[in-house]
Structure formats: structure tokens, C-alpha cells
Design a protein that fits this description.
This protein is of the alpha+beta class and 357 residues long. It has 14 helices and 10 strands. The protein is globular and about 60 Å long. The two termini are 31 Å apart.
């Protein structure tokens, strides 16, 4: 995967992205090429043509005075989103959260017969993935126009940080299936379930445009295939392509032998036992914390998963074993842990530990 695409918290299975997604791109490319041949727009060619207008808009942002910076950022966003099939149409979403009126400025809003499909928010220009999560940076990581929560008739709370705005939006009566945040040349993509788990895609479109990789499965094609309107919006009454990506990503990780399950169970038990031992040595609480099953198992599995993925990438001789084991780890990591889970080690079932272990 390209370094302009950050799969934070494994929003999609890295193995699915490495092994299956290139095939999905080939299918998308056939449609894109056909549309291009018939004079219709498509996100792949749209990105290939966007480098020059994006550069001009970025130069305008650099030269803009403070009072015009927000206007220049919006112009930059319009160029980027229009290239991949979105139609900017700014509006204020008015909805409720726990009976309180909430107002969220949107760059674009897409609805279907079944509800809110996609909301696009816009923020100050970010320079790196970390900026998207830094709501205290005095610009980056903050919405251009904040959201509002009407607490009482005369008092409203403003929400500017991207992270807080997303958490707020997903709890409203108009919560969307997906949210895309555009912040200059960076974008963040997530959904309700994955955002609550710290999982999202952060993409550096500016770098991808500058590199201008035009190969059919090159960097621009990956961007078009992950966050364009072709992927996030329903087409012909069918669900968004990203829905299928997520389903395939999970299915791709399911099913391994009993021996591997037992090996993972033992590994999780060792990790959990060490966590509890260290906490006891420090005099920290290990009893009476109800979040233990989910937290210990999920974090241990994700730790193991990353080790196995490195083995898969680094050692051809271990790839088959690492690949099979990683599928088991992924399947368990994406499934909510329960105290009755067969992967739950006895030392964890019989003890309670703090989330911050």
C-alpha cells in the first residue's frame, strides 16, 4: 500500500488490501475506462486531471491573508472533491442528540431512501495525518465552521475539533453511514462502528496528485478506489462499494485450524498474564474493572496481528503460516470480545484489569 494512505487501526484488513483490493481496482478500471471513452467523468481520470487546478488553488491558499484563508481552503476542497465525482453543496444539518438541537455545517450531504448515506465535513488544511486528530493546534484538526449543541434557549456549546465533531455527529438522529472529512489536501474516512474503535482511513491526496502515478493499479487509482463518489455513494440502488469492501475484508480473515486457534489462545493468555503481573507489582487495581474481557483480548490480538503481518512481509518462508494465523487474529479482533469467548484465557476471565494497561 502507498504511504499516502494510512489504514489507522486496520479500518480495512491489511491483507485484504494487499491481496484482494488490486483485483477490485481492475474491475473499477474497466468501468472508468468505458466511461472515459464515452466522454463521461470518472474519478481516476478526474484525479489525473486535478493536479494543475489543485496546485493553483493551493497557491491561492498560501497567498491568502488570514481573512480569506477559509475561502481559499473551500476552493481547494471544491477542486479535490469535484475531481472524484462529488457535488459540493454546503448546508447546515439540523438534527437532535438526546433531545438537544445540534447544528453541523456540511460541505455535502447525500441521502437515500434508507437514511443518511454520506456527510462531508471540511476542516482547516492539514499537513500530516496527525493534524487531523489535533483539535488544539489552532487551525489544523478543527472544522472551518464549528458545530453547535443548543443546551438551553440562551446557551449553545460549540464543537470545533474534528474528533469531537465526528463523535457528536455519529450520536445524532441523522447519523450517516460514512463521514468524509476534507482538510486541504488530506482526507479522513470513517464510519460509526470503526470510529468508536479508533479505525479510519487518512489519505494524503496532495502527495498522490504530485506524484501523478497513472498506472491502472497505481497510487491515484488506489485513491479513486477508496474514497471517491463511486465507492462511498450508492449506485443503481445498490449499496456503496465500501460496504462490500468491509464485508469482504472481514470474510477474508475468517477460518483457520484448531491448532492455530489454540496457539492464539495461549499467546493471548501469556500477554494478559504479563499485563496483570505488572499491574500487581505496581500496586495498581486488577479487580472490579468490567472492561477487562474486551480490552485485554482485543489489544492482545491486535498486538499479535501486527507481529504476524511483519513476518508475512519480511520472511517468504513464513508467509503461509503467518498468513493463516493472521486471518484468525483478524477475525477475532474485529468480533466483539465476550467473556464467554473461546479465545478468552482463564487468567483474564477470572480477573479484572484497567483499560490503561
Amino acid at each position: 500500500m502507498f504511504d499516502s494512505i494510512h489504514n489507522a487501526g486496520d479500518f480495512l484488513s491489511p491483507h485484504w488490501l494487499a491481496e484482494v483490493f488490486p483485483g477490485r481496482l481492475k474491475d473499477l478500471h474497466a468501468d472508468w475506462a468505458d466511461r472515459h471513452d464515452h466522454g463521461k467523468g470518472d474519478p481516476w481520470h478526474g484525479l489525473m486531471s486535478a493536479a494543475e487546478p489543485f496546485g493553483r488553488a493551493k497557491a491561492g491558499l498560501t497567498e491568502a491573508a488570514n481573512g480569506r484563508a477559509a475561502e481559499s481552503v473551500r476552493a481547494l476542497h471544491d477542486v479535490l472533491l469535484s475531481a472524484v465525482g462529488y457535488r459540493p453543496g454546503r448546508e447546515e444539518l439540523r438534527t437532535l442528540r438526546d433531545g438537544l438541537e445540534v447544528t453541523v455545517p456540511l460541505l455535502a450531504r447525500y441521502q437515500t431512501a434508507t437514511g443518511e448515506a454520506l456527510h462531508i465535513l471540511e476542516a482547516h488544511a492539514a499537513s500530516c495525518a496527525e493534524d487531523l486528530l489535533d483539535g488544539d493546534s489552532g487551525g489544523a484538526g478543527r472544522l472551518l465552521d464549528g458545530a453547535h449543541i443548543q443546551q438551553t434557549a440562551g446557551h449553545a456549546t460549540q464543537v470545533h475539533a474534528i474528533t469531537e465533531a465526528l463523535s457528536l455527529l455519529f450520536l445524532t438522529d441523522a447519523a450517516p453511514r460514512y463521514v468524509l472529512v476534507v482538510a486541504g489536501g488530506w482526507l479522513l474516512l470513517t464510519d460509526t462502528d470503526r470510529w468508536s474503535e479508533g479505525r479510519y482511513l487518512a489519505v494524503d491526496a496532495e502527495t498522490a496528485l504530485a506524484r501523478h502515478d497513472e498506472k491502472r493499479t497505481g497510487e491515484l487509482a488506489w485513491h479513486a478506489g477508496l474514497w471517491s463518489a463511486d465507492v462511498l455513494l450508492p449506485r443503481d440502488d445498490a449499496p456503496p462499494a465500501l460496504d462490500q469492501y468491509i464485508q469482504d475484508s472481514v470474510k477474508h480473515a475468517v477460518g483457520v485450524s484448531k491448532d492455530l486457534r489454540e496457539g492464539i489462545r495461549q499467546s493471548v493468555e501469556l500477554l494478559a498474564g504479563e499485563v496483570l503481573r505488572v499491574r500487581r507489582e505496581r500496586g495498581e487495581q486488577v479487580e472490579g474493572i468490567p472492561e477487562l474481557p474486551k480490552d485485554i483480548v482485543q489489544q492482545s490480538l491486535r498486538f499479535l496481528y501486527r507481529i504476524l503481518f511483519l513476518l508475512y512481509r519480511m520472511s517468504p518462508g513464513l508467509r503461509r503460516c503467518a498468513w493463516d494465523t493472521a486471518k484468525e487474529v483478524t477475525a477475532a479482533a474485529v468480533k466483539p470480545a465476550r467473556s464467554a469467548s473461546p479465545l478468552m484465557p482463564s487468567s483474564v476471565r477470572n480477573s479484572q484489569a484497567n483499560r490503561r494497561w
